[in-house]
Amino acid sequence: xDDNIRGCKRHCYYYSRTSGRTLTxxxxxxxxxxxxxxxxxxxxxxxxxxxPFDEAYRPLFGDGNLVRSPDGKAVxxxxxxxxxxxxxxxxxxxxGFFSANIKLPSDYTAGVCVAFYTSNGDVFEKTHDELxxxxxxxxxxxxxxxxxxxxxxxxxxxxxxxxxxxxxDPTKEFHRYSILWTPNNIIFYIDEVPIRExxxxxxxxxxxxSKPMSLYATIWDASTWATNGGKYKVNYKxxxxxxxxxxxxxxxxxxxxxxxxxxxxxxxxxxLSLQREDYAVxxxxxxxxxxxxxxxxxxxxxxxxxxRYPVPPPECVIIPSEKRRFKDTGRLKFGGxxxxxxxxxxxxxxxxxxxxxxxx
Length: 360
Prior knowledge:
Blueprint: H1 3-18, H2 25-43, H3 53-56, E1 57-61, E2 66-68, E3 74-79, E4 85-89, E5 92-103, E6 112-119, E7 130-136, E8 145-151, E9 162-164, E10 175-181, E11 185-190, E12 193-199, E13 214-221, E14 241-255, H4 263-266, H5 268-275, H6 284-296, E15 298-305, H7 320-323, E16 329-331
Antiparallel strand pairs: 1-4, 2-3, 3-14, 4-13, 5-10, 5-14, 6-7, 6-13, 7-8, 8-9, 9-15, 10-11, 11-12, 15-16
Helix pairs in contact: 1-2, 2-6
């Protein structure tokens, strides 16, 4: 049986179990159709070449909690009561495609943050750029959630968070998480499904990341904010918490941030090559999958948070059917569920016939 079909069956089973109710035939059929969209987008895997750890990365902190595999192609990051751990790319890159297969810690993970991101904060302390995947742990029995974020030119006061659920259990098997960064756009991927795109505009100015960045992966104690705003802390009775990374991919233009030739000139040819890659194009099938994801799994978006941003930031594309589902705070209405009928109380979203279809 094809691995993607197996994956679809597992995801359907996962949500039928976590939904807390028996699915009706209609809702099950619609759910399967929705998952099929993900599976089609996921069926043609990117043609990626992994890089051994020691060829492109080095430990960042917590050396004793960073464990390489014997073949050098994978690494485990541990968090215990003494330290977390992390690694960093050996070079900075002016644009690139940064990707890894990741499996998250299981059981009780409240307060734990696993991050996969690009940044140049160690070089440009006050004007740094950053692109984040941050996975936010949870109490046992509750699913992991995650957020993506973007900072440009030190714009930390203008966070661009979007928070979402996953359509699978990220602790059971590896899934690929990727960040594409080009001169014109940024795309966050899970497996081969694009979940978020930021298109550069003149109005963004320096808020669009433009300086060379390193790739980071870390696991650390984020008890002060990661789970329910800090309500639930890391419980070291469950330590060590282990995040596994393998099939590391780094496609980009390595640069010296203080080199005489500007990076955008030195990397022009590589940038053109990067933008011709399969993962640089959101095909109609992938765009449909992205809409499905955002309709059914995203539960917070800064673009709809009118309390923080009465005027949405210039890169925001306001989709009416999305906007109707969010409060002024950018969070979902009806107790955090994507379903429109408040009597449905299951934790995980299931596509229902009452969902708005106007922008599909």
